Amino acid sequence: MPKKKLIIFPFNGNGIEALDCISTDEYDFIGFVDDIRKESSHYDIYTRDILNQYREVYVLAVPGSPASFRKRQEIISSLGIDSSRFVSVIHPRASVGRGVQVGMNCLIMAGVVLTSNAQIKDHVCILPNSVVHHDAVIGDYTLIGSNVVIAGGTTIGKNCYIGSGSNIINGISIGDASLIGLGSNVLNHVKGNAKMVGNPARDLNAHIKQEVF
């Protein structure tokens, strides 16, 4: 069976690390697509034109950072490709338990553990050595850093950023477009568009509003 030709978008840290997750038996990596002209001695970097010129090429889209995570849906949608062209990539050293569901265009890196019945929705990135426990739900377009622990029955909303080293207690929900800062311990429900930091985590946005008023 011929290999699938694969493009990664964009040429960023997530994209470079995604190369370690790709099966060379399944995929023929063509290069990166990026909106900013960049030079690399290691990889071919193309404009978006290649996506229209070669419609048989599959795509793994992994944009996003603490500064831009809320725009992930807009950025990925702007590629204008059919959903059938997106692929999900799971590192061979990730552990996927029984009943786990992984959506389209997801990147699951080395050492990640997804336990029983966890749901990973579409366009999610999970960096190395993070654990998503039983029955947790990770919403569309969410980014999860490395060494994160998300306890059982927790629901993470859409377009969130969960910073590396953070811990989230069982059975709570985190609202859409929230940022959980590095190393934070989240012990209570979190409203949407929050900016949580510390141990226990508190919402910096709410603190700023209190100071203003």
Structural class: alpha/beta
Rg (C-alpha, Å) = 18 Å
Biggest sheet layout: 8 strands, mixed
Overall pLDDT score: 95
Shape: globular
Write the CATH architecture name of one domain.
Answer: 3-Layer(aba) Sandwich
Organism: Pontibacter mucosus
Keywords: Transferase
Protein name: UDP-perosamine 4-acetyltransferase
Family: Belongs to the transferase hexapeptide repeat family.
Overview of this structure, please?
The chain is of the alpha/beta class and about 210 residues long. The chain has a domain of about 80 residues: 3-Layer(aba) Sandwich (Rossmann fold), CATH 3.40.50. It contains four helices and 23 strands. The strands form four sheets. An eight-stranded mixed β-sheet has the order 5-8-11-14-17-20-22-23. A six-stranded parallel β-sheet has the order 6-9-12-15-18-21, with no helix packed on it. A five-stranded parallel β-sheet has the order 7-10-13-16-19, with no helix packed on it. The longest helix is centred in the last third of the chain and has 9 residues. The model has no long low-confidence stretch (mean pLDDT about 95).
List the defining traits of the structure above.
Hexapep; transferase; eight-stranded mixed β-sheet; transferase activity; Rossmann fold; UDP-perosamine 4-acetyltransferase; 28% strand; AcTrfase_PglD-like; single chain; alpha/beta; 213 residues; six-stranded parallel β-sheet
